Amino acid sequence: MNKIIHRYIFREIAVPFFIILFVLTFVLLMGKILQIMDLMVNKGISIADVGHLIVLVMPNFLLFTIPIALLVSILIAMGRFSADNEITALKASGVSLVQMFVPVGFASLLAFACAILIGFFLVPQSNFAVKKLLFQLATQNASIGIKEKVFNADFKGILIYADKIPVDGEYMEGVLISDTRIIGEPNTILAKKAYLIADSKLMIVKLRLENGSIHTVGPDLKNYRKVDFTSYDINLDLSTTFKAITDEHKSSTDMTLTELLARMKKPGMKDADVRELAIEVHKKFSIPLSCLFFGLLALPLGITSHRAVKSRGFAVGIIIVSAYYLLRIGGEALVETGRLAPAVGVWTPNVFFAVLGILLFYLSAKEISLFQKIAATLRKSRTNDEVSP
């Protein structure tokens, strides 16, 4: 009998969980739509590469949306049971709140396992893979963007003109470059041939020029200098093309737990850098564990006789999630400034909601209303004050 009830409750949680997970992930992805459209329309990136990029950024979204989807789905499921008087029927049949928590706890454990797998392995690897893919796309965009007999200004401080480019695009002939990266000392570079060379280790793209000359005119227009060369390399700055994406990924988020701990032990590390690494270490555990605390908290909160089940579940879920992430962001900010220890700043939201969940679960199991308990305590305190001389 209990197994049937457990499967029934678990199914009622699972269905809204996947729906909410999909909706929340899609909403977060909508924030990237403009950048994705820019990659497709203006940067010459193929749909397959854009799809690959979306897949790689999904683990970051899922790590954020899994705990939220779990919380809201439990609130909705328990709220529907209460509105249909199924909670009352279960209690009348001898099913306690602890027994009802078995499928809720199982769902929370599954969400915890998924979140910790994503946080420990997929997020660092996907972040590193995103950088590799962006570099490949940037290299591809550099070769695609340079057309013959057209001035190309996609690179910061450099204007490139190529008189002829073969069909295969392996090199350029008759190259003219205006280099204004050095303020007050612009250079004009002429070369017979030029090649684009990508260095995947250093993540840079070079334009290698052959058999040419550099012409420089002084700021006062009185001095002129010419330098001939057989080979000359120019580093191309691709930040203007992909800055909006690459700036979102911190170096600490690319590391696994082992790499973070090893980096923290390196001598000569600044205190601010150590605190940033410590925050990432604690977040790898605290974010997945929030699934368990949210499950413990959502069960007593979801049991209600309110008729607007879905709207109330969303509203309560949004309030709890907002409070949780506000506490987390505030704690991390205090850690970064050195006012709190990393463990205190990162774990305070989890401890707060864990204690609150245990308290509400206990009161709900004893069928004690929290508001009635507070009112009774206030009345007792007022009576004692009146009795005392």
Compile the SSE list and pairings.
Layout: H1 2-30, H2 33-41, H3 47-83, H4 86-92, H5 97-145, E1 152-155, E2 158-164, E3 172-179, E4 187-199, E5 204-217, E6 224-236, H6 239-246, H7 257-264, H8 271-302, H9 309-336, H10 342-365, H11 370-387
Antiparallel strand pairs: 1-2, 2-3, 3-4, 4-5, 5-6
Helix pairs in contact: 1-3, 1-5, 3-5, 3-8, 3-9, 5-8, 7-8, 8-9, 8-10, 9-10
General description of the model:
With 389 residues, the chain is of the alpha+beta class. The chain folds into 2 domains: 2-138 and 248-380, no CATH class; 157-236. Helices cover 64% and strands 15% of the residues. It is built from 11 helices and 6 strands. The chain is elongated and about 95 Å long. The model is unreliable at 240-250 (pLDDT under 50).
What keywords describe this structure?
2 domains, six-stranded antiparallel beta sheet, 64% helix
Query: Which overall shape is indicated by the principal axes computed on the Cα atoms?
Result: elongated
Our measurement of the CA-to-CA distance between the termini, rounded to an integer number of angstroms, reads: 59 Å
Low-pLDDT runs of 5+ residues are 240-250
Q: How many distinct domains?
A: 2
Give the total of beta strands: 6
Q: Main sheet, how many strands, which sense, barrel?
A: 6 strands, antiparallel
Rg, Å, rounded: 30 Å
Please give the count of helices.
11
Beta-strand content bin: 15-25%
- Average pLDDT works out at 80
Derived structural class: alpha+beta
- Strand order in the largest sheet: 1-2-3-4-5-6
Percent of residues in helices: 55-70%
Order of helices and strands: HHHHHEEEEEEHHHHHH
